[in-house]
Predict the 3D structure of the following.
Amino acid sequence: LLIFFCFLVLHTHHLLLLSCFFFFLMIRRPPRSTLSSSSAASDVYKRQVSTQSTGVMTIGALLARSRLQLLTMAMRRERGAKERLKHAGFEFRKSEGQHILANPLVVESIINKAGINGTDTVLEVGPGTGNMTTKMLERSKKVVAFEVDSRMVNELRKRFAGSDLANKLELVHGDFLQQPLPYFDVCCANVPYQISSPIVFKLLAHKPPFRCAVLMFQKEFSLRLAARPGSEEWCRLSVNTQLLAKVEHVMNVGRNNFKPPPKVDSSVVRITPHRNPVEVDYEEWDGLTRLCFVRRNKTIGALFKPKNVVEMLTKNFETFCALHSTPVDPDLDMKAMIHEVLVGGEFDQLRPSKMEVDDFLRLLAAFNSVGIHFS
């Protein structure tokens, strides 16, 4: 190229050849390192544009802009490919929480903790490609699996077609939260994390109660489920769940045990419903705990002082009296009634962050005894 350049310089009358030479230099493929990022291509484009004259974009600028556009499209395609990790001919949808538990040792440990035996009917939410389903079918009498993704349903049907396990699998294609639940003894599942809370309370509302549920959730959610009073994780979710069941933390599961790996770590908990649950109005209970955990570290006395809280309880009291044909005292002082309940029951200095489930039950009973309700 240097010899050719010298030749052209010495024969400057060959302007056409000189133009061809520079055109060749501009369109030739640059080294890979110069296109390692979109910023590098953008710099090339800016330098080319800055050399244009008479307000007309040069050929170099046009070529640089084209290379920038092509590089941008390639990077977008690469990003999309990373989001659509493929398995067995279809793509996992990370946005829908599709992270398949791929470590067989972890699968085995979870099933062992569930204590599945040969007479059990097992409920599974989100079986995915069937890694856990296979092991449960080998141990149980029957597995009822709920799956909303039609691609996963087809994969499961293909996986078990023609096998002895196919007769033990009942596959329900639909949204678990919208479907009636059959009778089951044990629930064992790696659930979609974005609907963890609705799944827990749908299971706990099921009658007759199941023996236990061993479920995998996002680690932070699991810690809140199994939290104890006084811990940082103790919250309304902890209280509402432990009113109905005993919750135990079983094991942690790292993100590398999944395909594709999620951005969070996971934990497994075992939920055992109380055989004789407390009889309580759950709407009232939820209203009380929602109010108490607005500021979990404040005292109960301080939480019930705001004007909007007093007004809400006054309206509830008047509604309750109207429904029971009870006259309302025109000199009703709701603030004084609340103070009397809290001080009389020694609740005023308690803090929700350290209160046991029984403390909340006593508080609700004390309010109800004088006609104050939360729903």
Notes: The chain has a mean pLDDT of 83. The CA atoms of residues 96 and 192 lie 8 Å apart. The longest helix spans residues 59-83. The two ends are 87 Å apart (CA to CA).
